[in-house]
Amino acid sequence: MGGVVLLGLGAAGWLLLRPPTVEIARTRTGEAVDVIYASGVVDYVRQAHVAPIVTAPIRQVDVAEGDWVRPGQSLARLEDGPQQGAALQLAAQAAQARIVAGRTRRLFEAGFAARAADDDAQAQARAATAAADSAAARLRDYRLTAPFAGQVLRREAEPGDLGTVGAPLFVIADTRTLRITADVDERDIAKLRPGVQALIRSDAFPGKTFQGRVSQITPAGDAKGRVFRVRIALPADSGLPPGMTVETNLVTDRRPKAILALSSAVRDGVVWTVHGGRARRVVVRVGAMGGDLTEIQSGVGVGQPLIARPPANLADGQRVRFGKAP
Predict the structure, then answer these.
(1) Where in the sequence is the domain holding 165, given as residue range(s)?
(2) Measured between alpha carbons, how far is residue 168 from residues 46, 77, 144, 151, 157 in Å?
(3) Separation CA 302–CA 296 (nearest Å)
(4) Among 282, 281, 293, 268, which Cα is nearest to 318's?
(5) pTM exceeds 0.90 for this model
(6) Measured between alpha carbons, how far is 183 from 217 in angstroms, rounded to an integer?
(7) What is the pLDDT of residues 109-153, one digit of tens each?
């Protein structure tokens, strides 16, 4: 009975002393890229929320959602009856004042009126004309027009509704140009410049990558959020709809001949090589990191055999056996 126990202990000890089996993967050259991650929203480069600057009932709506409009085209008219009456009255008063001013000027030039009377008549004519012009200009405030050529994306106006100051009744956009507005961490903003490539992904289009370019970096950041706003230009045929949330990778640098290793071979800045059947611990400097591959900037060279998945308890100088390479 005791002999059987000793034999079992001996077999267990042999298994414990048996060198671990490791898989070897060699480093190789390839492209490494430095990227900055940022989330953003697709929107139009040129978009306007058209709101009245006076409060009045809506008398007439001239466009529908989806309509294309020209610059200055009427979108809606507000009720302006009282203002029309006031404008007509002031226009008539201005016309009468100009007649009086003209008659007084002729009398003055003929020597039948004093200079003071002429000056007073001319001043009254100018004041009445200015009041009439101002009233006519205020009438234009009761007419909402398109600020530029585009499409009506949203209409919140119906005849009889009350249009109020600052409340948008229409959203107009130039649908030919799109962009992404993204927030970039202030720690990364120094690495960015206009023209940097953007790789864009969306959950709505799994497996598809869209292309863009950084077009603008806001000169001032948000101190509270510690971010800078970045605009990314999109091609007209990108297919990304406005309002969609996207993820962007901004490519700040490319190294086409970088040394790459399996990411599973790199742990906390350390890789393991094998010399003479023994594992050797090597400290490396890591660059760009990806899900499958990691850039090694120093510590090992091209073609270096590395342990693909080093055991957690591996010791420097420990004997290892080779298994199948990944």
Answers:
(1) 54-78+142-175
(2) 16, 14, 11, 15, 9
(3) 10
(4) 281
(5) no
(6) 10
(7) 888 889 998 899 899 999 999 998 988 888 889 999 999 999 999
